Amino acid sequence: MTDTQTARENPAAADATVTMRVWRGDDEGGDFTDYVMPAVEGEVVLDVIHRIQASDAPDLACRWNCKAGKCGSCSAEINGLPASCA
Questions:
Q1: How far apart are CA 33 and CA 62, in angstroms?
Q2: Nearest CA-CA partner of 38 in 20, 59, 22, 53
């Protein structure tokens, strides 16, 4: 299903967003940066991170491997709790 199809079937879904608060920094410090992205049904956190890289922050680095939630390389703190990005 495309975003256009979703918007036609559920107009409220067209306005849905997700805010990703991403730590940007290095070993000397940093800060959180908020990215507000359109919500896309079926996406996982890692998908949104990749969209942020493609559209807003090409210098954003992230490490991932299987995207199946099995290897643990894409783990993150999500809403204050450790979780898998996949």
A1: 15
A2: 20
The reply to whether the predicted model has a pTM over 0.90 is no
The per-residue DSSP string of 9-78 comes to H-GGGGG-EEEEEEEEEETTEEEEEEEEEE--TT--HHHHHHHHHHHT-TT-----S-SSSSS-TTEEEE
- How many Cα neighbours within 13 Å face the side chain of 25? 10
Q: Which amino acid, 39?
A: A
pLDDT tens by residue, 29-77 = 999 999 999 999 998 888 999 999 999 999 998 888 777 767 777 777 7
